[in-house]
Amino acid sequence: MDWFLQQLINGLALGSIYALIALGYTMVYGVLRFINFAHADVLMLGAYAAYFLAPAVSSVLPLPSITGALIVTLLAAIICAGIGILIEFLAYRPLRARPKLTVLITAIGVSLFIEFTCQHKAVFGADTKPFPKLLPAADYNWGGLVVSSNDLVVVVVTALLLAAMWFIVQRTKMGTAMRAVSFNQQAAALMGVNINRIISFTFGLGSALAAIAGILYALKAPGIEPLMGVQPGLRAFVAAVLGGIGNLPGAALGGLLLGLLETFAGGISGLSNYRDGIAFAILILILLFKPAGLLGKATVEKV
Amino acid sequence: MPSTLNSQPSTSSQGAKRWLLLGILLAVVVSMFSAQFNRYYLGILIDCGINIILAVSLNLINGHTGQFSLGHAGFMAVGGYTAAKFSLVFLPTVPEPLQPVLFLVALVLGGLVAALAGLGVGVPSLRLKGDYLAIVTLGFGEIIRVVVQNMEAVGAASGLKGIPKFATLGWTFALAAITVYVVAALVNSTYGRGFIAVNDDEVAASSMGINPVRYKVTAFVTGAFFAGIAGGLYAHHKQFLSPTGFDFLKSIDIVVMVILGGMGRTAGVIIAAVILTLLPEVLRSFADYRMIIYSLLIIALMMARPQGLFTLGQKKKGAAAI
Question: What architecture is the B2-248 domain classified under in CATH?
C-alpha cells in the first residue's frame, strides 16, 4: 500500500509537468492544426533563462525564497513567450497557407536549429549545468511516505495554471476568439477576429507555460542541458494526443495518466528498463482504438 | 517522374530495366577497381549507396503513397540488427567461399524481419493520417530503440561489435540498383498507379475500386524491407551497431533526403541522398556549425522550395499533398 501511494505521489508530480507541457502543444494545435516540435526547446530555453536570471535576481532578493523564485519564473515565462511569438512570426507565419506537413517539417527544423545552436560552445555548450536552488526544499515524511516540497509545488502550480488556462479560454474575450479561430479560422476572420493576434497570443501563452514547466522540471532534474526538453516534450506530446489533441482538459488528463503509468511501470522491476518505450506503446494502443484520443471528438471527412 | 510516363507503362518498365542493368554493371565495374580507392572515399561511396536505398524506399511510403513516416531508422535498425546477429552466429560454421551466401541470407532475413515490422506499423497506420501517422511512426522508432537498448543478445546499450566486413561497393550498388528498380517498376506498373491514386485523393481512389488500405500496407512493407536491407549493409559496413545510431535524427535525415529530392521523384531523391551524404564530409572543417547549417537548410528548403530542389518545371498536381 505504501509503495502504491508513494508511486501515486511521484506519478502525479511527473504527470503534472507533462500536463503543463501538453497544454502548450494542444493550444497551438487547436489554432494552427500542427505539432509545434519547437515547444520542447522553448521548455529548455525557459530553464536556461531561469539559470541565467537566478544570480541577477538573487543579488536583490536572496534565493532560495518563494518571492525570488516567483520573480525568476515570471521573467523566464515572459522571455519565452517572446521567443515563442518570434518563432511563430519568423518560421510558421510565412507557411500558414502551405500543406500541414511542410509546416511540420519546418517545426522539426526549428527544433533542431534551437538544439544545435544551444549545444554550440559559444552559446550554452553541450554539458550539463547544475540548476540553481530557487526554492527552499524539504522532504516531508508522512507515516513512511516521502513527499518532497518540490513535488508539492509542481502539483499546486500545475493545478493553478490549469485553472487559469480554463478561465482564459472559457471566460475571456481573447479565449472566445481563440476558440473561434480553432473552430473555423475563416469564419472567425469574417467576424472581425484578428487571426494573427490570436495566434501570436496562443504561442505566447503556450511558450510561457513551457517555460514554467521547464523550470519545474529542472527543479527535479539533476541539471540542465540543451537536449533536456526532448524527452519530456515527446511524452507531453503523447499526453496531448492521449487526451485528444486540441482539448485542454484532455491534455491535463493525458499528462496525469501518462505520468502515473510511467511511474508505476518504472517501479515494477521487469518493466523499468522499458520505461522510455511505454509512452509510445500507450500512444499506439490509444490511436488504434480511439484515434481521436480519450476526450477528443471524432471528425468525419466530408467530400 | 511517374506522371510523365503514365501513358506508356511498358516503355517505362523497360527503361527501368535498362537502368537496373546499367546500375549493376556500374557496381561490378567500380568494385573491380575498388582496391585502388582510398579507404576513406570507398567508405563514403558505400554510405552513399546505403542512403540511396534508404531514401528511395522511404520515397515509396512518403512520396509516392503520400503517407508520412518518421520511423524509417527503426526499420533500418530491425534489419541491421537481425542481419548482423545472423552473420555473427553463423560465421564460425560457414567456410570462407560460402561467406557471400551467408551475407545474402543475412541481408534478406534482415529485410524480411523489417518488412514484418512494417506490416505491424502499416496496419494501425491505416486509420491515421498526416501528423498522427508521423507521430506513431516516430513512436515506433523510439520503441525499437528502447527494445534494442535492453536486449543483451545484441549488446544492449554498449552496441553490437565485431560484425564481419562483408559490405563492398559491388554489393551496395547492386542492391541500390535493385531497390531503385523494384520501386520504379512497382510504381510504374498498372498495379502501382494505385499508390499515386492514394496519394492524390484517397476518397476518389477508393470510389474507383482501389483499396487504399492495401496500397498503404504494401508501401510500408516494401519500404521497410529495403530499409532492413540497408540496415544489414550498414551493419556489415561499419562493423558496429549501437542503438543511438538509429534515433529520431537518423529518420529525419532520410526524410530530408526525400523532401530535398522532391516527394515521389526517384531520380531527384537519389541525387539528394548523394548530396546529403557528401555534405557533412565537405562541411567537416566547420564541424561545430555543421548541424546548425543543416537545420537552417531544412527551414530554408521548406520556405523556398517545399516541392524539392530537383523538380525542374515538372509540377505535379499532387505535390501539394505532401
Answer: Orthogonal Bundle (1.10)
